[in-house]
Amino acid sequence: MGSRMVVSGVGNGNYEPNRNMTRAEFAAVIVRALGLAPEKGESSFGDVASDEWYCGYVKTASSYGIIEGYSDIKFGPNDVITREQAMTMIARAMKITGLDAELTNGEIGELMETYSDRVTVSGYAKNSIAECIKAGVVFGRENNTLAPKSYVTRAEVAAMVERLLKKSNLI
Questions:
Q1: Hey, CA dihedral for 62, 67, 71, 76, is it positive or negative?
Q2: Residue 89: what pLDDT?
Q3: What values do phi and psi take at 42, rounded to 5?
Q4: How many CB atoms are located within 10 Å of the residue 54 CB?
Q5: Less CB within 10 Å around the terminal CB: N or C of the chain?
Q6: Which of 72, 67, 74, 71 is nearest to 89 (CA)?
Q7: Residue 9: what pLDDT?
Q8: Residues of the chain with pLDDT under 70
Q9: How many CB atoms lie within 10 A of CB 108?
Q10: SS3 track for the chain
């Protein structure tokens, strides 16, 4: 993902794969991965200044429906994202790439039943997580857990995005 300029380091030649990823960083990664151009101009989010490096990425990811703000004016660019938030955004990106993981009745429960912490998944994220699992874009962590409330690392996002692009036949 680094050679394709989808992910980048954090400075001084470091990548920091185990560091948590922020919402702004995720917006940049997913926009680059999908080959979308960062939009110009001011963001509708009051906490995303037009002179910030991530403004164009947030605007593009928002306009494509990949990410949402906490409200119409608050995005939280420096907030770290959880695994369930990342999987929800990856599932939205899957629709853009045409990666079909439509679920049949009862399939959500079947796909998630092997994960011991499935009951901790937020209601809004269940369909998206099941779609990601079905498509083979996301896997759990050790001990058959999804770890939905845990923060997602930069390495995990890179792996998810790479699988998204491969399963979508984009790389």
A1: negative
A2: 94
A3: -80, 150
A4: 23
A5: C
A6: 67
A7: 57
A8: 1-15
A9: 19
A10: CCCCCCCCCCECCECCCCCECEHHHHHHHHHHHCCCCCCCCCCCCCCCCCCCCCHHHHHHHHHCCCCCCCCCCCCCCCCECEHHHHHHHHHHHHHHHCCCCCCCCCHHHHHHCCCCCHHHCCHHHHHHHHHHHHHCCCCCEHHHECCCCCECEHHHHHHHHHHHHHHCCCC
Taking the CA atoms of residue 138, residue 142, residue 144 and residue 150 in that order, the dihedral angle to the nearest 10 degrees is -70
User: Position 96: which residue type?
Assistant: I
Confidence (pLDDT) at 72: 86
User: Residue 132 is encoded by which pair of tokens?
Assistant: 């990601």
CA atoms of 6 and 44, how far apart (whole Å): 25
Residues 6+ apart with CB under 8 A from 42: 50, 55
pTM here is 0.87
